Amino acid sequence: MPGSITWRKARPDDARFLERWDEDPDVIASNPNDVGRTDWRAEIERNDPFSEILIFEEDGRPVGVVCDIDPALEETHYWGDCESGLRALDIWIGEARDRGRGVGAQMMRLALARAFADPAVRAVIIDPLASNARAIRFYERIGFRPVERRRFGEDDCLVMRFDRPA
Ligand SMILES: CC(C)(COP(=O)(O)OP(=O)(O)OC[C@H]1O[C@@H](n2cnc3c(N)ncnc32)[C@H](O)[C@@H]1OP(=O)(O)O)[C@@H](O)C(=O)NCCC(=O)NCCS
Predict the structure, then answer these.
(1) Where's the N-acetyltransferase domain (predicted)?
(2) CA of 117 to the centre of ligand 1 (A)
């Protein structure tokens, strides 16, 4: 059982955690073409309302992050043209000792509740690498379903979707 999991918006000083987590082998493996290329302080200070960075803490200690974007409005247009009413999430836990003990499931439950608190949100989408079998199993267990295989730049991904519960 994990401790108490809470979230807050990232502050510029959180860049030190994000930079350290970018050196973790599993974080790198989950996104090898991007990890290490983000200037986290600048990203946090950019304060883009359509691209939020949430720090998750276990008993007050930062353990992971969720990036929550509106894919139709976010500046880089990573997802291309897409319908309104979606949120796209990225999730990672920074250190091996914090994985595999339920922290991620709790983070994702909180992130989904937060996304669906906006009545305009119809579904949440994610794009793990197709090779990231453990993460895909984790998402399936939470209730995401596979939608399509899609290439984002050099990344071969599996797009998955979680529709608003009826
Ligand atoms: C994916 C991730 C967020 C899941 O969070 P978690 O707290 O480890 O997951 P939980 O403890 O709630 O659930 C355990 C499941 O997560 C899976 N998992 C995925 N990657 C894992 C990892 N690197 N280490 C341990 N478990 C991992 C496990 O496979 C486990 O399922 P299993 O028992 O069937 O193998 C987390 O493991 C992580 O950050 N992994 C590295 C980065 C990553 O792959 N992010 C996803 C990018 S799409």
Answers:
(1) 5-165
(2) 25
Whether ligand 1 lies within 6 angstroms of the CB of 134 is answered as: yes
Quote the CA–CA distance of 105 and 121 in Å, as a whole number.
Answer: 20
Q: Is the pLDDT at 54 greater than 90, yes or no?
A: yes
Which residue type, as a one-letter code, is found at position 95? Answer: E
Asked if 68 and 112 count as a contact pair (C-beta separation under 8 A), the reply is no
Domains, the chain, ordered by start: 5-163 (3.40.630.30)
Protein residue with least CA distance to atom 35, ligand 1? 134
What confidence tens digit (pLDDT) does each residue in 20-31 have? 999 999 999 999
Pocket residue to mutate for ligand 1, from 35, 138, 159, most atoms within 8 A of Cβ:
138
